[in-house]
Amino acid sequence: MKTRRYITMMLFLLMCITAMAQNNLSVGKLTGGQGKDVLIPISLENTDEVVALQFDLQLPFDRSSRTAPTLSQSRINEHTVSVRNLGNHKYRVVVVNMSNRPLSGNAGTIINFPMAVPTGLDPGTEYVVSLSDVIITNRKGDNIQGNSNVNGSYTVQREDAPDLATTDVNIT
Questions:
Q1: Residue ranges of the domains in the chain?
Q2: What is the C-alpha to C-alpha distance for residues 113 and 115, in angstroms, rounded to an integer?
Q3: How far is CA 49 from CA 45, 55, 80, 139, in A?
Q4: 3-state DSSP call for residue 43?
Q5: Residue 21 pLDDT > 90, yes or no?
Q6: What class is the 21-156 domain?
Q7: Does the N terminus or the C terminus of the chain have fewer Cβ atoms within 10 A?
Q8: pTM of the complete model
């Protein structure tokens, strides 16, 4: 009898743990060239309805001034994005819907954040793009973020050498 009760309690506890919300942000891992503007994809996987989110994004380089952050059309539901420069390549990003409508879907890119990659970098070097102070909220304003937010990176690719070939060489 005690064993059955113990097993029942353990199964109930296991069900409660697996039913906990998994609402997590992640930053993509990109490889690209130098002297370009790139878009850093920031994705959200959510099991709950998400109305708004806020996070700090630490970039290795400056934000591109030529391109604005864009929200993914497949996930937004009349949401808007605002960005505040906190200095030292750190930005506070807020995605909100003033009518308290949730984001569409449960997985995928939420925002593409522009970054200007300078020239003169060492090829093959990986630069970290990190998230901090993540807040994900539901309709009630509760913070429902999980504990598995994932940082990303930008790796500078090696430039392809020109493909030179010689033909018909004549020496006189």
A1: 21-156
A2: 7
A3: 11, 18, 17, 8
A4: strand
A5: no
A6: mainly beta
A7: C
A8: 0.79
